[in-house]
Amino acid sequence: FVFLTSALLFSCGTITNTVPGSLSTVCCNGWQGRYVTITIPGRAEHLTLCEVEVLSQSCAPPPGAQNLALGRLANQSSTFEDETGKAVAGRAVDGKHDGKFEQGSCSLTKLDIEPWWIVDLGRRHSISMVIVKHREDKCCGERLQGAQIRVGVSRMNHGKHNPLCGTITDTRPGSISTICCNRLAGRYVTIVIPDREEYLNLCEVEVLSQGCAPPLMGKELAQWE
């Protein structure tokens, strides 16, 4: 796990790619901190690091990155309906980024236990990052707190047990959460809120197929005397 602050209060993400010579890029989505901790939890292990860089801006999509989710078949645990119509899963992959639920730009489930949303990319891809757009209005931002992004090749249990890319922690209105998946291979991308009853509200989901690139204006901070 990669944590910000010495008290391990915020988890940026988890390293999943252990191929020799590989680079793991973990996005922290603009969170503030002075200390960065890397820890291997729950077991006795050697921790070997050949280089660690900490950049001062959030992870940016590389030039020419392809959105694999755009217009793809999506499904969700249930569908909320009101006077604006049915908030179907496909709204989250329709290419509309305004984040306005009342204008039909967002998907929304009913109040479900462990609500989920899944998109089928059509075939297996190497996934670099998943970008989630939040609602612009001041309603309900806390709903996405702790939502997990999972990528894999299994549709069993709606992909909820596929490998974990990361967790959404920024739930401010209109915010954008960028979760780096470090080239995890998968056909299905699932967003699930574990261990509680909740609504799952997504205003746009993008799945990118190229490596997560450092920001053009990023400043390297991890240089200790």
Automatic annotation (TrEMBL):
InterPro entries recorded: BG_Antigen-Binding_Lectin, FTP1, Galactose-bd-like_sf
Domain Fucolectin tachylectin-4 pentraxin-1: 65-214
Record has Disulfide bond as a keyword: yes
Keyword terms: Calcium, Disulfide bond, Lectin, Metal-binding, Signal
GO BP field: regulation of cellular defense response; regulation of complement activation, lectin pathway
SUPFAM superfamilies with a match to the protein in the record: Galactose-binding domain-like
Keyword Membrane appears in the UniProt entry: no
Residues annotated as transmembrane: none
UniProt-recorded Gene Ontology molecular function terms: fucose binding; metal ion binding
Signal peptide start and end residues: 1-18
Assembly behavior: Homotrimer.
Membership in a protein family: Belongs to the fucolectin family.
Function (record text): Acts as a defensive agent. Recognizes blood group fucosylated oligosaccharides including A, B, H and Lewis B-type antigens. Does not recognize Lewis A antigen and has low affinity for monovalent haptens.
Protein name as catalogued: Fucolectin tachylectin-4 pentraxin-1 domain-containing protein
Organism: Pelodiscus sinensis
